[in-house]
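User: Before I run my own analysis I want an independent prediction to cross-check against. Here's the chain; please return only the structure tokens and, at the end, one sentence I can use as a sanity check.
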Amino acid sequence: MDWENFTVTEFILSGLKDFQDFRIVFFVLFLNIYLVTVLGNMTTALIICLDPLLHTPMYFFLCNLSLLDACYISVTMPKMLHDLVSENGAISFPGCFSQVCCLLSSVGVEFFLLTAMAYDRYVAICNPLRYMVVMNHTVCTMLATASWLCGFFNSLIQTALVWRLPFCRSNIIHHFFCDIPPLLVLACTDTYPNELAMLLVGGVVGFTCSLFTIVSYGYILSTILRIPSKVGKRRAFSTCVSHLSAVTIFYGTVFFIYVRPTSSYSQDADSLISMVYALLTPLLNPVIYCLRNKEVKGALSRILRGKTYNKGMLTS
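Assistant: Structure tokens:
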């Protein structure tokens, strides 16, 4: 094909072509992952909303994270399931960039929410007597709202920069879904400004959030080490384990994908890592935060028994 005279009106997602011989198996697998993820996250959010004893800052942010993760996996998974059934990976030009925008919004919001949750743990452990005063309803609402708005604004910038690129070469995206790195490979112009912008904007957001998280946990660790009893240390640290696990998985995979030059892009490696942060991270978060969480399991038990407690919402 003469790519010089070829104008892209749609893209072909070819990441699932290797699965076509086992497409029924993978369809069932991915469908179960999708249903379990959405059900797990929505159930977590519902439990937190219904049980007054969970109307605290920590669970307020967890509720936001659960709702985000349900949306997060819904950006990519329905299209992947459709492609497995239809064996047609075609996606329109606007549809592809809509997916990019929603995906990057989800990634950005999760960065900011995890950072807000790190601050919440810092206040709870390092300044427990003033916890409900510092983390009042207004502060929590502002932090959550800022997380959603900043994530969406970051996504608009990144998506707009790629949207303006000319695509007149191959329209085959060697990936499971539309994302910036595989799209930059297809652009028929110099993408260095886009790579630089992605590194700068993504790097600033990622570096700022990760630095704030690291500093918060530095203070948390210092405070925990000064607790005299082993039981007290264990109890304080146990409140941070879930968040640290989620941060490690999410930050590691996202930094690998976005905060590096496109010249180092590897189809197989990047597709595998993308699967982790786009599919497994939303699946694992309910497990990480709720499976060993006695308060959530206790709340579920109370809801199922129809037992409620008279406790107000976040203090103002």
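Sanity check: The chain has one domain: 7-305.
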